[in-house]
Design a protein that fits this description.
Helices cover 69% and strands 0% of the residues. The chain is elongated and about 50 Å long. By secondary structure, the protein is an all-alpha fold.
């Protein structure tokens, strides 16, 4: 994904940015870093309170967001949004079940 596992292609910078960032992109990156920190904190709290396996999807989401931040990659950001929507949908199902009974 973003780790750049090497390869024989020496003409590409696998760890570099896909698009050179402008000032607005740098400002938005700082906002996303705050979101990453909060999401990582929530994942750790979920793992401590509920159980280790409850926060694994959040840790995966944090890794995808971190990879997108490192490279300014729009595709990774969209994958992060989809993963967060899945988590929200699962939360709505659990809350709906509790409100129903």
């Amino acid at each position: 994904m973003c780790l750049g596992l090497g390869g024989d292609d020496e003409q590409r910078d696998l760890m570099g940015n896909l698009v050179p960032p402008n000032q607005k992109a740098r400002d938005l990156k700082s906002n996303l870093e705050i979101i990453l920190g909060v999401h990582f904190f929530v994942a750790i709290v979920k793992m401590v309170i509920i159980g280790v396996f409850s926060g694994l999807s959040d840790i995966l989401s944090c890794l995808v967001l971190w990879c997108g931040l490192c490279r300014f990659d729009y595709c990774n950001m969209m994958i992060y949004v989809i993963l967060v929507l899945f988590d929200c949908f699962q939360l709505l199902i659990v809350l709906g079940y509790y409100f129903q009974t």
